[in-house]
Specification:
This protein is α+β, with helices and mostly antiparallel strands. It has helices at residues 5-14, 25-40, 64-73, 219-223, 227-230, 251-257; strands at 16-19, 78-88, 95-98, 111-114, 117-120, 122-128, 140-141, 177-182, 187-189, 198-207, 239-240, 247-248. It contains six helices and twelve strands. A five-stranded antiparallel sheet has the order 1-8-6-10-2. Strands 3-9-7 form a three-stranded antiparallel sheet, with no helix packed on it. The chain is globular. Bound molecules: 2-oxoglutaric acid (AKG) and fe (ii) ion. The site of fe (ii) ion has 2 residues, from loops. The site of 2-oxoglutaric acid has 6 residues, from β9.
Length: 268
């Protein structure tokens, strides 16, 4: 159980890590069906299933093979702070290379290692729901750029065929794999090359004390989650000093107190 030393070494060295085939064929099929219907025929889904991480996709929130990695690279208390799904058709892309170099998105969301522990600010997890070949054009990275000391050099920023950095790396994996990367790593979603779409779910996790994305999920999505999964949307705070000793904002407390998750109802 847990992340192996080799995985820690690899994540620190590269800024990303692939865990292959962590989902069962049934889980893949159900979540893929949900994501495709969200796009094609949302009315065929219940309101609480019309966005991730609701419906079938909710099992991804606290998948043990994901949580055990997040506890090593973020910390023992994490929140889920953003989610989106993708059906990327041939010719579509997310955009150019971004991130990397000393200019981290903000120091509190930066990447560092202290006393033998990784502290990654914000971590994306991409759940691939189709088989991926490197040439298909899934997410690409400049390994190591999350801790580069010089700004990303323009010679290494092209996604054009023949002009790509020799350091640029993609990945191949079976459907049901999870890809972890620190948002400080230089990465891109290049043009998708395959005839059949890339179907994937992307989550952003962060330390319990921080929040980068304002939560925009519809209240019914969160209301439709199990209590254990709503806990990943609890309020972002660490300690309540009205008690002695201070009360910790743990998942156990959230469940015990029957507390409401963060309120998205009245956000303008
Ligand atoms: O579309 C992709 O493959 C990458 C998406 C991306 O840049 C991100 O999620 O931060
Ligand atoms: Fe990105």
């Amino acid at each position: 159980m847990g992340m192996t030393d080799e995985e820690k070494f690899r994540f620190d060295l590269n800024g990303y890590l692939l865990r292959e085939a962590i989902l069962t064929p049934d889980e893949i099929a159900e979540i893929k069906d949900q994501v495709e219907r969200m796009q094609r025929d949302p009315q065929s889904l219940e309101p609480h299933e019309r966005a991730v991480p609701g419906g079938a996709s909710q099992l991804l929130i606290d998948h043990p093979k994901v949580i055990e990695v997040l506890h090593e690279i973020i910390g023992p208390q994490v929140r889920l702070e953003g989610a989106f799904s993708m059906v990327r058709e041939q010719g579509e892309r997310h955009g150019d290379l971004h991130g990397g170099g000393p200019q981290q998105i903000d120091p509190i969301f930066g990447y560092r290692v202290q006393n033998g522990r990784i502290h990654a600010g914000m971590v994306r997890v991409a759940f691939e729901l189709t088989d991926i070949e490197e040439k298909d054009g899934a997410t690409v990275f400049i390994p190591g750029s999350h801790k580069a000391n010089f700004p990303m050099h323009p010679d290494h920023m092209s996604l054009e065929e023949g002009q790509r950095s020799p350091f640029l790396r993609g990945y191949s994996c079976p459907a049901g794999s999870a890809l972890f990367f620190t948002e400080n790593l230089c990465h891109a979603g290049p043009v998708w090359q395959r005839e059949t779409p890339r179907v994937a779910v992307f989550f952003a996790y962060a330390h319990l004390a921080t929040h980068w994305h304002r939560l925009t999920l519809a209240p019914e999505i969160i209301a439709g989650l199990s209590r254990e999964r709503q806990a990943y949307f609890r309020e972002p705070w660490i300690a309540d000093f009205r008690t002695n000793p201070a009360t910790s904002n743990t998942i156990e407390r959230f469940l015990e107190k029957d507390e409401a998750p963060i309120n998205t109802e009245h956000q303008p």
